Backbone:
């Protein structure tokens, strides 16, 4: 993980397709974020950490499991930076590593209830595991 | 009019009534939903990573199947709609992705090339743009007069609006116009396009309940008696939190009731 910071920065830029260098720091992304209160690093910080190359902080942040991909930050960004896609890229960088899945099939039985829709399991596995 | 129809995983299981009512109502309104053969689950979330290829293939296969028949493809579940619409746009705009996806497809038993030709419609868009809300209103047998219904849009139908092009992302009206067409009273509340928490309700139950609770409180404060949605996950998250004070139902249930074809 360490010593290849520049490579990881470029990876996140490529995987996200986001434009961190266009950010004008207005904070609208974090102001729009419904997960803001549960996050250690907020959406606007993902943008500035990517720009500054602070990749380890992004990859070890609990926020990658709190973003709900509601696209409010993407919709409202006046510079089309797409913060949610940076968070998604960070999450992908983590779960693509061996043993770093956030959800295992063994966890599922105790999370189930009779009303739970299949859509919830399908989407959670897509977001949390590879 | 005949449309290709992509039901998705949950309409075959927990949300069977959404599927059934949609088909019955289509019949009553003079259009046909022809289910895509051997469709595969879309994955329920759009794979945002630009290097995610295989996760976009189920959507591509369904889109191609519809296009081959010369039909638009209709969805009901907001998540399916979101995935199909966005993958289709990627196939139109992103040459790199298009090339890699088509390299996969070239290995299939019946290879083809797909370039995003299909037209993706949500059932509500069919009602608005093809049937017309005026025509729908004329076919209503049991107007839901006096019912105060809050539209719950959620995120996936609306955002990002540059791709979804469903309605105004901050001040949508399609659900409210639908509610008026079936003779009920739409209750407009500011949080109708806020997120219910989506997939986070599997592992972060408190977070999801807090989000759903804010939406419900907001709708109740404006006088809503019931919420309507198109999305099985929105329905689950909302009902789990506030099902007793403010139930959430599929919009097709009220449509079937208004058209006089609701099966008890």
Residues:
């Amino acid at each position: 993980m360490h010593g290849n910071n520049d490579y990881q920065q470029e990876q996140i830029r490529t995987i996200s397709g986001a434009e961190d260098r266009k950010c004008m720091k207005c904070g609208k992304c974090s102001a729009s974020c419904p997960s803001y209160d549960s996050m250690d690093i907020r959406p606007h910080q993902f943008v500035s950490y990517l720009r500054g190359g602070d990749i380890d902080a992004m990859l070890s942040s609990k926020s990658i499991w709190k973003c709900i991909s509601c696209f409010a930050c993407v919709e409202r960004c006046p510079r089309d930076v797409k913060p949610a896609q940076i968070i998604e890229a960070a999450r992908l960088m983590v779960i693509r590593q061996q043993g770093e899945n956030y959800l295992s099939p063994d966890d599922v039985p105790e999370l189930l209830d009779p009303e739970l829709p299949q859509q919830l399991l399908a989407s959670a596995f897509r977001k949390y595991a590879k | 009019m005949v449309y290709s129809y992509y039901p998705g995983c949950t309409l075959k299981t927990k949300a069977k009534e959404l599927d059934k009512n949609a088909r019955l109502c289509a019949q009553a309104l003079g259009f046909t939903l022809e289910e895509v053969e051997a469709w595969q689950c879309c994955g329920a979330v759009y794979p945002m990573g630009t290097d995610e290829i295989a996760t976009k293939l189920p959507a591509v296969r369904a889109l191609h199947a519809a296009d081959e028949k010369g039909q638009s493809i209709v969805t009901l579940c907001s998540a399916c709609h979101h995935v199909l619409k966005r993958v289709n746009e990627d196939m139109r705009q992103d040459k790199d992705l298009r090339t890699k996806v088509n390299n996969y497809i070239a290995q299939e038993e019946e290879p083809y090339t797909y370039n995003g030709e299909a037209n993706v419609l949500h059932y509500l868009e069919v009602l608005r743009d093809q049937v017309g809300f005026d025509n729908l209103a004329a076919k209503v047998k049991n107007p839901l007069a006096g019912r105060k219904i809050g539209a719950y849009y959620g995120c996936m139908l609306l955002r990002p609006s540059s791709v979804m092009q469903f309605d105004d992302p901050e001040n949508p009206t399609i659900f409210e116009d639908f509610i008026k067409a079936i003779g009920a009273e739409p209750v407009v509340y500011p949080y109708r396009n806020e997120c219910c928490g989506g997939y986070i309700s599997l592992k972060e139950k408190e977070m999801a309940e807090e989000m759903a609770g804010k939406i419900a409180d907001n709708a109740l404060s404006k006088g809503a008696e019931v919420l309507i949605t198109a999305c099985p996950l929105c329905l689950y998250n909302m009902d789990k939190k506030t099902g007793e004070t403010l139930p959430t139902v599929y919009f097709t249930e009220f449509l079937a009731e208004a058209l006089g074809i609701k099966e008890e």
Remarks:
- Chain A has one domain: 2-97.
- The radius of gyration of chain A is 15 Å.
- The domain at 2-97 of chain A is CATH 1.10.1060.10 (Fumarate Reductase Iron-sulfur Protein; Chain B, domain 2).
